[in-house]
Amino acid sequence: MNVDINELAHYYAKINISIIDVGRVVVPSGKRCFGGYTPPFSGVVFPLRGRARMFFNGVPYEMEYGKVFHAGPNMSLDKEVLSRSVWDFMVVHYQADNNEKDSFPYALAHFQLEPGYNTRINDLLHRLHSSCTTPGRLPELRAKSLFFSILDELVTSASQRRNQSGRDIVEQAIEYIKSHYMEPLTVPGLAGQYSLNSKQFAYLFQKHTGMGPNEYLIEQRVRRAKELLCTTACSVAEISACVGYSDPYYFSKLFKKRTGFCPSTLQSYLGKNTG
User: Fold this and answer.
1) Where is the HTH araC/xylS-type domain (predicted)?
2) What is the pTM of this model?
């Protein structure tokens, strides 16, 4: 399930939840368990050591430190340890108020977040485990507070990593466009290089540059065409081909729309003033 982090944060902020338990599990290397089910409440899995693969309702998740996983109640569950070392993780089981479950679909879903290597989450998690194994009302209150602190840190870190990842992708795409603007580039083709669909890629590009990828490509081509018109004796058709347009008529229309004058007019004007 794709997760909107802002929406997830909003849901957790408004719903009433109860913590059922917090457990730490150490599974031997090579251990496999198929045909199981998650408990009748939601759970958040925090890998600590080793690697494993879990299937929630048949969907596989590669589990390792730096990632956090959510599973809904009563889901089919298969799991296997992939690492040569033990698979060590903590899981927090919680339950949303019955009256709020319909308005909180994430509580019933499986999904993954990537906060990265965050020692503060680990510290809060161990404190939460300690509070949940200590009897009394005060530890119960402290546990709820710690759980929300963990959620806050989790969604904040995951959001920051997504933004950084998106920025890195856009920076790579910009460099690629600058080096390959003369080729027949397309948004689907560019997006595919980064394992994104066109909509996702265009959204990231717009977010980090203020313009769409097509707009940026055209800007680069027109800028280079201006340079060639000013510094070479190439024909308009040759320059059109040099900047990625096989149709010089289309190129001339586009150039005039972007600059206010035809490429042939600019070329003629420059020739008169340098002759």
Assistant:
1) 171-269
2) 0.66
